[in-house]
Amino acid sequence: MAFSSPRNLLAPAILVAALVLTAWIYAPGLNGGYVLDDLGSVQRLAAVREDADTFRELVTGDTSGMLGRTLPLLTFVAEQAYTSGTAEVSKTNNLLLHLLNGVLLFFVARGLLRYVRPEEATLGAAMAAAVWLLTPMQVSTVLYVVQRMAMLATTLVLVALLAYLAVRTRLIAGQRPWFSLPLLLASTIAAPYAKETGFLVIPLIVVLECCWFWPVEVRGRAHWRAAVVPWLPLVAVLGLAGLFLVFHEGYALRRFDLGERLLTESRILVDYLRQFYWADTLRLGVYHDDVTVSQGLLRPLATSWSLLFWGVLMAGSMICVRRGIALPWVGLFWAWLGAHSIESTVLPLELYFEHRNYLPGLFLSMMLGLALAQMLHFLQGRRGALATLMGLYLLALAMKTTAVAYAWGDPLRLAVHHLAGHSESSRAQAEMAKQFALIGDYPRAAAAAARADALEAESMATRVRRNADQRLRNVALACLARAPLPITELAAITASPIERPIGETHYLVELKRMRQLNACPDFAWDALGSTFANLYLEESPRSASVNVFEALAAFANTGGQLERARDYMTLAAAARPRDWELLLMRAYFERVTGDDDAARGTLSRLDDLARDGELTPRQIERLNSFKES
């Protein structure tokens, strides 16, 4: 539809205003720094500045997800290599990507709405894009740097849907889709390399094909799709059951089982719906480990009401399909459910995350755009009143988003925001403990940490950290607060009765960083190092993951304890005997500690890997350079 007439200028004006307003609202949140997984997934990539040749290795060596999330990792590495690489740069790029997705959504929505209400399609699409851009539920995706994975996957899904619409339109017109078809194939293939949700491109296209391009000539008589389409939910259930069989072992690490997860997700999906359209901003954020796990139909009672709600909607949608009525609504509803099918069903993931709505939210916003198009058609004489109501709704969304984005602009404000909305969240309490430590108040930090431990022990929604991990957190808090090393915490670490006392590397890496920066010069670092040695290097050593041994080696190396670093790397390399990087680091520590015979033996093993073709040319080059140094 052209934008030539004055009436049609309203739609582009709404879209442009929404884009500008979104950028202005998010601006205060861009300088909030890294949070949570950003530290391990993004900040670590700064190494590319020191060695540009590691660019390709960082991008291709990613093991996240099923295929590796190569595309977003490429953007993160490029930011580190070619810009200042700060969190503000990354968040600004996330915001730009969000705005781009809003524009793509406008064109996808307009393409779909043209098949229902051609005259109102452009205005309905503009409204859909504006709501999606401005809903406050997007803040924890856009300003959480690592969630670019979800954002970029959504970008590619939108490109695929747009290309699909172009292909379908040309086929209906009797033309050949020479240019659109290759774009459809390329974006469909690329989407899973941003995040696993990219796999949903194909089922989403199937749903939209069946519900939006139902041929007009089949009305009034039977058609094969009337018999086939109602079975799509059953096919989806069987597919999800297959996924569960593949990933069911992950439930051993959870405190809830598959049945409890499905019951809980039935309530969470209802909450997602409400939060998308009209958010309780106090509850928005990244900490939702305080969610109540459903342990039966009546525990809590909301579980039964949620299941009844979904049962009625699913039954109604299948009746509509069989009778060929309200198909666009059914298509958007099934597309929304389908977009949640990976992360909100059988996989043993955590229960509640707002960023899971970034892709499904496309279809919720298109539902609103469709509703507006329908009302504009039937309420010809009341368009002014309808436009006023929609404008007030957008303004209310903008005001809510402004408050949330402002909280993200400062770590302390964000911690207070999370604690206010989730006082029973162990993670919110732990983050508040960190903020207390940063201002030098160790007693309050320790109290908040103790509260976090108590909540974590009671919660069914989270995994309980090992006792030693909790004690290491308290040690890190003491360093941040410039307080003396809490000796009782060291004793608790040593007294841990389990075989693997340390399960996480986060606090080890943080302690190494603080030691390297001399953040707490009077800290008893040697006592802490001896505690680790007592655990892993004495006569009856405990075990740990390779990542923990690597982190311990880095910690020891920072303190100049090279023999211990060598021993930790020996343990790490023994767990992965064909990992070239571990072997190279082992050879380095063997050399600097004067153990030349051991170094030659390790280098010989690396030569064997090179002869077996297991090393890349770049890795062989680094190996040869090490030998010559």
Description of the structure:
The chain is mostly helical. The chain is 65% helix and 0% strand. It starts with 9 loop residues before the first helix and ends with a helix. The model is unreliable at 1-5 and 215-222 (pLDDT under 50).
**What's the overall geometry?**
globular
Q: In DSSP terms, counting alpha (H) and pi (I) runs of 4 or more, how many helices? A: 29
Q: Round the mean pLDDT to the nearest integer and report it.
A: 86
The poorly predicted ranges are 1-5, 215-222
Strand coverage percent: under 5%
User: Largest sheet at a glance?
Assistant: none
- How far is the first residue's CA from the last residue's CA? 67 Å
Radius of gyration: 27 Å
Q: State the total count of DSSP E strands.
A: 0
Give helix and strand order, one letter per element, not per position: HHHHHHHHHHHHHHHHHHHHHHHHHHHHH
Fraction in helix:
55-70%
Structural class: mainly alpha
Task: Summarize this structure as a short list of keywords or feature phrases.
629 residues, mainly alpha, 65% helix, disordered N terminus
